[in-house]
Structure formats: C-alpha cells, structure tokens
Amino acid sequence: MLPKRNRVLVEGANLIKKHVKPNPQLDQPGGIITKEAALHVSNVAMYNPITKKADKVGFKFIERNGEQHKVRYFKSNQELIDVV
How far is residue 19 from each of residues 8, 27, 34, 35, 40, measured CA to CA in Å? Predict the structure, then answer.
C-alpha cells in the first residue's frame, strides 16, 4: 500500500501496532505487528550534519556559468544542500 499524496514513510518513525487476524488460507499467523505509518510532509525536517539537529530549509537562486540554478540551503548556517 502506497502512502497518500503529500505523505512520506520515515524509517523508524511513527510506529503503530496493528492487530491482525490469522488467515489459514494464506498461511498467515495472527497477532500484533508493528509497522511504520505515513507522516505528512510538513512534519518532516532535514537533518543538518554540521549542527547535528533538524533544520529548516530555504530556497535561493545561484548563478553559475550564466545560468540560474535553484538550490536548497539550511537556514541556521546558510550551508548549501544541493551543490550544482
């Protein structure tokens, strides 16, 4: 099952427990399973390896070789994420 629009799966985050009935036709055991649920994109932050914390991201245009390139940067230390 794919997440809905504007939702992402983050490994190890938003873990839920689901109760599953056994299905002998598919040879599935019953029980409680733990799985990851989708998060809305607005609740996800980028990890900044320099500050070792979650950080906000901004966009700016950089001119290289006479062309405009849209790049992302961390707002706390102005470090570029997308290096062109």
Answer: 23, 16, 9, 11, 24
Instruction: Say if CB 68 and CB 77 are below 8 A apart.
Output: no
- Rounded CA-CA distance 78/62 in Å is 13
- Give the DSSP letter of residue 42: G
**Whole-number Å distance between alpha carbons of 20 and 74:** 42
| pLDDT tens by residue, 20-78 | 999 999 999 999 999 999 999 888 888 999 999 999 889 999 998 889 999 999 999 99
What Cα–Cα distance (Å) separates residue 78 from each residue in 53, 70, 72?
14, 14, 9
Q: pTM higher than 0.70, yes or no?
A: no
